[in-house]
């Protein structure tokens, strides 16, 4: 783990100076924060910085939101953007308020006020944000599984009884394809109908092939080897179950266990110990419990935005020693 100065030195030289000078929080996130890191795990840093007070009163498109260094996996959010995302119970954002002290690289004293009020950012919306993110993970798992089991080959127009080039202009063809083959079947007659339907099928299969190639060509070699060994995307499966369990914990315990008490089980999933069918069934069972748990949780339907705004204003007042209201 790097220290604060080492991390900020990795940021691009064009990064505004206040990102480095007014950094109030910096943590090691991802697998390290979850207590699931291995010797091969990357270092992924997330942080929060103060911004000039006038940022509270501007809607400029040049308003600073965050600084990123993708090469070194560093993202520093402005405190304004951070509060906005955390209030929406964004899983990757709000979990930073509940990290284990062992992964905190740097913490300005003023950050303690935010951490002590982390409950302000918990609401029933977590059921939708955490499970929604989990469902997106499941869709990836299912899609990747389909590709692993049945690698795609590039569609050829002749296989769809199509000429080498389209008979009509690109824009008109695109519009007809968008309408959909069902509508076309009911409203067009003769050879042109069959032609358009075949173009639509070819277009759909080509888009799927493009997504397949992007996935195949851009995969991390270690990730690809793991998928080949397990027969499915076990890393996404681990994230999927983690997110659903965190959603349950929020409903029952009113907190977020960023450092996972079930880290060993999640690592076993990531390492392919369990079958694909078992993981999918487990995910369905975990998700099915959420609605009832949240209905009995006593959590507010949404966060108290006024309380969060007041906290944000008071942070600015204390940090800059100014009066804003």
Taken in chain order, the helices and strands follow as HHEEEEHHEHHHHHHHHHHH
The total strand number stands at 5
Low-confidence stretches are 181-188
Number of helices: 15
| Structural domain tally | 2
Output the strand order for the largest sheet. Answer: 3-4-2-1-5
Average pLDDT level: 89
Gyration radius (Cα, Å) is 24 Å
Percentage of β-strand residues: 5-15%
Distance between the termini: 40 Å
Helix percent band: 40-55%
What is the structural class?
A: alpha+beta
Sheet with most strands: 5 strands, mixed
Q: Characterize the overall form.
A: globular
Task: Show the helix and strand layout.
Elements: H1 4-9, H2 17-21, E1 23-28, E2 45-49, E3 66-69, E4 74-78, H3 79-87, H4 91-94, E5 104-107, H5 111-116, H6 125-149, H7 170-179, H8 181-187, H9 191-218, H10 221-230, H11 234-253, H12 263-270, H13 276-288, H14 290-295, H15 305-320
Description:
53% of the residues lie in helices and 7% in strands. The protein has 15 helices and five strands. It is globular, with a radius of gyration of 24 Å. The chain is of the alpha+beta class. The model is unreliable at 181-188 (pLDDT under 50). 28% of the residues are buried. It folds into two domains: 4-122 and 303-320, Beta Polymerase, domain 2; 123-301, no CATH class. Strand 3 (66-69) and strand 4 (74-78) form a beta hairpin.
């Amino acid at each position: 783990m790097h220290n604060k100065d080492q991390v900020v030195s990795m940021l691009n030289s064009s990064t505004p100076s206040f990102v480095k000078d007014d950094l109030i929080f910096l943590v090691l996130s991802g697998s390290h924060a979850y207590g699931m890191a291995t010797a091969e795990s990357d270092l992924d840093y997330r942080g929060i910085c103060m911004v000039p007070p006038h940022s509270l009163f501007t809607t400029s498109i040049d308003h600073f939101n965050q600084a990123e260094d993708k090469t070194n996996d560093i993202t520093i959010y402005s405190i304004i953007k951070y509060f906005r995302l955390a209030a929406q119970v964004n899983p990757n954002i709000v979990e930073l308020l509940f990290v284990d002290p062992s992964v905190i690289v740097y913490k300005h004293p003023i950050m303690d006020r935010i951490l002590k009020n982390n409950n302000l950012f918990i609401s029933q919306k977590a059921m939708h944000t955490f499970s929604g993110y989990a469902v997106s993970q499941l869709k990836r798992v299912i899609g990747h599984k389909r590709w692993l089991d049945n690698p795609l080959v590039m569609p050829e127009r002749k296989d769809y009884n199509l000429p080498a080039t389209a008979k009509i202009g690109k824009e008109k063809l695109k519009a007809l394809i968008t309408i959909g083959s069902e509508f076309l079947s009911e409203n067009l007659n003769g050879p042109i109908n069959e032609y358009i339907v075949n173009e639509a099928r070819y277009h759909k299969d080509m888009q799927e092939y493009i997504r397949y190639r992007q996935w195949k060509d851009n995969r991390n070699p270690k990730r690809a080897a793991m998928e080949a060994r397990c027969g499915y995307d076990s890393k996404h499966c681990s994230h999927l179950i983690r997110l659903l369990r965190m959603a349950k914990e929020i409903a029952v315990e009113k907190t977020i266990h960023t450092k996972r008490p079930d880290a060993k089980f999640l690592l076993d999933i990531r390492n392919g110990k369990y079958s694909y069918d078992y993981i999918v069934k487990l995910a369905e069972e975990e998700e099915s419990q959420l609605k009832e748990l949240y209905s009995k949780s006593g959590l507010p339907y949404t966060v108290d935005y006024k309380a969060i705004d007041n906290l944000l204003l008071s942070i600015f007042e204390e940090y800059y020693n100014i009066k804003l209201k």
